[in-house]
């Protein structure tokens, strides 16, 4: 079964797809949606068909529309069109500090908006942004690396974005199937044989999202680009796109002169991981000899970890699963936050009587592990484990985490490990930036980590790297072995002894209906903020509840031996509600408190919470 967020519908192709209604200011026309499932011809733009699903009714002022080039209505192998697109179309592709969109047709209600010409314009826009940033003059050719995960739209988007970059005079280096952290790493690696360091890097991925989505993450040696940079790039892309002509997109002379090279960079990245474990074990060649470690890559890009990292270190990897890239993700969503995914790796560990299981998300910036008894090291437990490892190396250091971490984790970090827990906001970029900020004002921090499985260490240039988190765990196994401590993954399990875990823990996601009249035309964010304000006011007078004295996101409240946090999702029109409590009854009391406060907001879908309190 493919991973989808909606129903898969059959593609229906039509040849007469477009009716230009010159009398109307609302027009049905062929949006520039390409049929992305066809094999790509590098360097060639081919619009072969447009599906009926891709017909859009967009509100375009008549003049703007007619001032643009002709819209060809018979989609066929020879017809290429470049319809005008509003700037808002591009800005809607922004997802926090990433670009994300629908790249593949086939899910009902999700029309393709990340097309090849849009990707080409984004490539050219990144080129212009980078040139400004690096203040490069025309004599210096900037170099950009491009990698991708296993998604079926990867190659088409890679070719399109490469054309945009190379067409702007940059040197493009293709890495093929790669991980997001490897891409950032390529801006730091000093090895001219591999054309490194690059000035900028792009990962084509939509992380753990369904198969039809895709997107871009951008890096320079200063780290991942932030929200303001992405907005800037998308605004530039809109201008560039609207200057494209069908001829400029298909000009083969221009394409032949582009500088696009291919390099096996993943071999550099993986050998760095191998070296890190060997070094930590006292320069032993095979420090994991005899350990049986199974990997589940969920058919994403992380399959390399078994053959290129674990095996050279001496580990047995038989029983590893879903290592082959398959962009339809036929086995489970590659995401350590997903229950089915965690069940799959746990089963693999138990079935194979392995010492350890390791699981990654699609682009390998999230990870989790499972010990030999099937106990999961994910969410708060993964943070506790990493905090224990890092605090052994850096006593007293501050551990920065996301906002949905448990009270038990704070007690563990502060009372058992002697560190400081700084619970910040959700979002890997937020926690990393906060850790960097703390260091800059003199508060030492060595670890920024989320319950989602994202994590970054100061020693690793604050690279958000799921594979490196696992390397730290492997180091612990290897060094315990080197110092004569046996027992496989017991050494890891022992590190989180004393972590208190709630009997009840749940996350409910309450959707905001953006079209609801209660929003009065305002944004979902504004509406969500109002819900939060109302909740905050309503709990003020309840003696059973205490607002968290320090809180950076949403409304976090303790009471009935547990806590809840209601906050706005980073990207979606959703208010995620986390509840932890010592038992179901107390969890219910917390749920009822929230429900009483939010039920009057008609634009908020509280059905998940209703269901919870009724059950
Ligand atoms: O706010 P949410 O909807 O829970 O999403 C939060 C998540 O968004 C993205 O996936 C980010 O990459 C994660 O770092 C973050 O944890």
UniProtKB/TrEMBL annotation:
<comment type="subunit">
    <text>Monomer.</text>
</comment>
<dbReference type="GO" id="GO:0046872">
    <property type="term" value="F:metal ion binding"/>
</dbReference>
<dbReference type="GO" id="GO:0006006">
    <property type="term" value="P:glucose metabolic process"/>
</dbReference>
<keyword id="KW-0460">Magnesium</keyword>
<comment type="similarity">
    <text>Belongs to the phosphohexose mutase family.</text>
</comment>
<feature type="domain" description="Alpha-D-phosphohexomutase alpha/beta/alpha">
    <location>
        <begin position="379"/>
        <end position="479"/>
    </location>
</feature>
<feature type="domain" description="Alpha-D-phosphohexomutase alpha/beta/alpha">
    <location>
        <begin position="273"/>
        <end position="374"/>
    </location>
</feature>
<dbReference type="Pfam" id="PF02878">
    <property type="entry name" value="PGM_PMM_I"/>
</dbReference>
<dbReference type="InterPro" id="IPR005845">
    <property type="entry name" value="A-D-PHexomutase_a/b/a-II"/>
</dbReference>
<protein>
    <recommendedName>
        <fullName>phosphoglucomutase (alpha-D-glucose-1,6-bisphosphate-dependent)</fullName>
        <ecNumber>5.4.2.2</ecNumber>
    </recommendedName>
</protein>
<keyword id="KW-0313">Glucose metabolism</keyword>
<dbReference type="InterPro" id="IPR016055">
    <property type="entry name" value="A-D-PHexomutase_a/b/a-I/II/III"/>
</dbReference>
<dbReference type="Pfam" id="PF02880">
    <property type="entry name" value="PGM_PMM_III"/>
</dbReference>
<dbReference type="GO" id="GO:0004614">
    <property type="term" value="F:phosphoglucomutase activity"/>
</dbReference>
<keyword id="KW-0413">Isomerase</keyword>
<dbReference type="InterPro" id="IPR050060">
    <property type="entry name" value="Phosphoglucosamine_mutase"/>
</dbReference>
<feature type="domain" description="Alpha-D-phosphohexomutase alpha/beta/alpha">
    <location>
        <begin position="96"/>
        <end position="240"/>
    </location>
</feature>
<dbReference type="InterPro" id="IPR005844">
    <property type="entry name" value="A-D-PHexomutase_a/b/a-I"/>
</dbReference>
<keyword id="KW-0479">Metal-binding</keyword>
<dbReference type="GO" id="GO:0004615">
    <property type="term" value="F:phosphomannomutase activity"/>
</dbReference>
<dbReference type="GO" id="GO:0009570">
    <property type="term" value="C:chloroplast stroma"/>
</dbReference>
<keyword id="KW-0119">Carbohydrate metabolism</keyword>
<dbReference type="InterPro" id="IPR036900">
    <property type="entry name" value="A-D-PHexomutase_C_sf"/>
</dbReference>
<dbReference type="InterPro" id="IPR005841">
    <property type="entry name" value="Alpha-D-phosphohexomutase_SF"/>
</dbReference>
<dbReference type="InterPro" id="IPR005846">
    <property type="entry name" value="A-D-PHexomutase_a/b/a-III"/>
</dbReference>
<dbReference type="Pfam" id="PF02879">
    <property type="entry name" value="PGM_PMM_II"/>
</dbReference>
<keyword id="KW-0597">Phosphoprotein</keyword>
